[in-house]
Design goal:
Elements (H helix, E strand, L loop, with lengths): L2 H8 L25 H9 L6 E6 L6 E5 L5 E2 L5 H14 L7 E4 L16 E4 H10 L3 H11 L1 H10 L11 H8 L9 H10 L16 E2 L1 H11 L8 H11 L15 E11 L2 E11 L5 E11 L5 H24 L2
Antiparallel strand pairs: 1-2, 1-9, 3-6, 4-5, 7-8, 8-9
Helix pairs in contact: 2-11, 3-5, 3-6, 3-10, 4-5
Length: 332
């Protein structure tokens, strides 16, 4: 598939549960004391298909800002939040524990694994989950998914009412499919390494209707609003662990206002046959314990913007938005 064709896919593929697509901001009862409008326009100026939804207060009770929140786009590693949620639910039921050791070996070895790529042995599930969220390690993700089962993760997604979200069985099966393997075929670590020396003539589009990592900003905001109030957990300590691990994500430091608690998970694709993705979704604690839940996402073609430059603008725009929102909430 041509690069521009992949981008063009995004616009018509709307979430089946969506009621409408907003193309401009909607504001309620907060003052704009921090150039919020300017920061929102800056994000909308990103190349490709920029999409965002930001709720101030539960379900946007004190403010709602949206731009194409129902666009069905590639969400990259942002899907790993659902794996964490299901893993912690399994800990609650006693099916597993955070102290259980999980294998780190060639059975799950994969690119995009900054923590575990060159390691072998076992480590605790707690360390695996931290690597999955903090550094978006793909091997950690597959270790966790193989333990809990992708269908169990999908069941949680369905329970949350997130009709747009699509996830793979493992990140390695997804990579294998992109590189030409039949659906459900794992090329293995040796096969994936061979791709580097003898790449296929074409890659399958990451955003497809077979195996993908996709969804909408609306559903990611809904997930974080529900999960961070404990809707899917029976115990307070489980919610604390869910929050603790999400607070470790390295991208938070690029957008959070000073001394402000943020829970988030991001993701990216860098120039895969010209296809690029940046996403950050989560929740910020603003004044008077008012939650600010958000998802910022764009898919774009390299001919419209180099990854590094767009990434810098992506984070700068979000930082401006969150700083302005916090200032506006504080000024109420």
């Amino acid at each position: 598939m041509k690069r521009r064709s992949m981008i063009a896919l995004a616009a018509p593929m709307l979430c089946t549960g969506a009621t409408r697509t907003a193309t401009a901001e909607e504001r309620y009862d907060i003052p704009d004391v921090g150039n919020l409008d300017m920061a929102l326009r800056r994000f909308r100026a990103l190349p490709g298909s920029p999409s965002y939804l930001l709720h101030i207060g539960e379900r946007g009770s004190s403010g709602r800002f949206a731009h194409q929140p129902n666009l069905f786009l590639f969400i990259a590693s942002a899907f790993k939040t659902f794996v964490l949620g299901q893993y912690l639910r399994d800990v609650e039921t006693g099916r597993t524990s955070l102290d259980e050791h999980l294998p780190i070996d060639d059975g799950i070895r994969n690119f995009g694994s900054p923590v575990f790529l060159s390691l072998a042995g076992t480590t605790t599930a707690r360390s695996v989950l931290e690597a999955m969220i903090t550094h978006s390690d793909n091997m950690a993700t597959d270790a966790a998914m193989l333990k809990v089962g992708a269908d169990q993760v999908r069941a949680l997604i369905a329970e949350a009412g997130l009709r747009s979200i699509r996830i793979p069985d493992t990140t390695r099966l997804f990579a294998s499919y992109l590189f030409g393997a039949p659906r459900g075929t794992d090329l293995g670590w040796t096969g994936l390494q061979q791709i580097l020396t003898d790449p296929p003539a074409t890659f399958r589009a990451p955003l497809n209707d077979v195996i993908t990592l996709a969804g909408t900003a609306r559903d990611l905001v809904s997930w974080y609003e529900q999960a961070l109030r404990g809707a899917f957990f029976e115990r307070a300590e489980t919610l604390r662990e869910f929050k603790r691990i999400h607070a470790m994500a390295v991208q938070i430091a690029r957008v959070a206002p000073p001394d402000t608690l943020v829970y988030a998970k991001g993701g990216e694709v860098q120039d895969l046959e010209g296809f690029n993705v940046k996403i950050l979704a989560g929740q910020m604690a603003a004044g008077a314990r008012l939650p600010v839940t958000f998802c910022f996402l764009t898919n774009w073609d390299s001919v419209d913007g180099a990854f590094t430059e767009v990434e810098e603008e992506f984070f700068a725009a979000i930082a401006g938005i969150l700083h302005a929102v916090k200032g506006s909430v504080t000024a109420r």
